[in-house]
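#lab-general

N.A. 3:47 PM
ok so I finally got the sequence cleaned up, no stray characters, all 498 residues accounted for. can someone with queue access submit it? mine expired

B.Y. 3:52 PM
send it over

N.A. 3:53 PM
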Amino acid sequence: MTEKDPDFSSYRNPSLSQVVEEFKELWAMVLPITTMNCLVYIRAVVSVLFLGRLGSLELAGGALSIGFTNITGYSVLVGLASGLEPVCSQAYGNKNWELLSLSLHRMIFILLIAIIPISILWVNLENIMIFLGQDREVTAMAATYCIYCLPDLLTNTLLQPLRVYLRSQRVTKPMMYCSLIAVAFHVPLNYVLVVAMGLGVPGVAVASVVTNINMVVLMAGYVYVSGRCNMRWTVVVGGGDGGAVMELLKLAVPSCLGICLEWWWYEIVTVLAGYLPNPTLCVAATGILIQTTSLMYTVPMALAGCVSAKVGNELGAGKPYKARLAAMVALSCAFLVGIVNVAWTVIFRERWGGLFTTDHMLRSLVSSVMPIMGLCELGNCPQTTGCGILRGTARPAVGARINLGSFYLVGTPVAVGLAFGRKVGFSGLWYGLLSAQVACAFWILYVVLVRTDWEAEASRAKGLSGLEMATRNARREVGGGGDGDEEGKRLLLCDRER
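B.Y. 4:20 PM
back already:
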């Protein structure tokens, strides 16, 4: 790369046609991913509906188990897998196909290790919940659900990395179709296991596991048939490749923390709602609002993943101008999505709660908080997208630090102070979330818009992704030996914070 490269300057003003073209490319990726996220959301709703059909005890136990598995398991696996985003996207942009496949293998190896302590937690759910003072009958039902979900941990060690791996190569429609086929069988699968066979709660859990297995089989089949991955597994414990796994962990752990810190905060809100006056009403309203935010989150989550891939691709290809343009277009789209969310939460605030309950008091409580939740999304959309941009530039630790400060040093004190100190009540918790989202969005945008040197990021991405390629080529030229020191020196797009 030289200074004469027309793509190297990130300070050129883009033309309208360039902006429109970038917009089209971005949404060609975002729409299939959004559809896939909605399908996954529908699958979760179907599971809850079948639990509710079984009875209140089964619904309560299933809800407790779902919350526990989300906090201790799925959020961790999704977060760790997101560390693959900068590696794969930059390697794809640099046409380093070997690094692309190796990184997938390494991440699967990391997740296989991670599910060991998670499995221990899931097996001991009943003891943990009884220790925390939960109802024994509900806890026993939750433990049953959790035990039957254990195989899903193994499934997700393949599912989550495959999603990131394909998205980093801008392959989104096949993922959507794979999810559509798998979810299409989810309802009849639940009916057969829960109603026809009478398996109850275990049947709901097994149906979810089988649906995820179907997704994995379909996606892995696509990867194999399309030839997008070298299926020769090369991850080893120790030696040079062990060092490469550790370098990948340097990206995966901050990515995991950044996602989990936000994810977990919503669970904390649910707990805090249980200490308010009329806790049953407040917890029920929290459940409805969190389900609503999960639905709204499908678009910014897709936008974040796709812009991470786009930014990483362009940086890996040595095109910081295009990376910056992708980031700016994505942030603009995020603000528009946020405005749409504000609008519909205000317009439909009186009717939305009626979709979930006929209780007048519960509907009124949900209605009173809906506009606040909409304003939260006005901050959440750009901050989520900004975190995706930071992952694309291999700086997930920056996003993790901002999430920690915003949600736990700003949002939590404000929520507790307003809800309990100032006696604002239930809405005080959501004003706490609003303050966290505002702080988070401000700092994320400051880092992306002011503190990011796109030329430096492109040089770092080009150099680091090219270094492994050069090292491997040099080793082949001397006969393929030297797996020790040469491999130990390899850098795998490690996250070097300034």
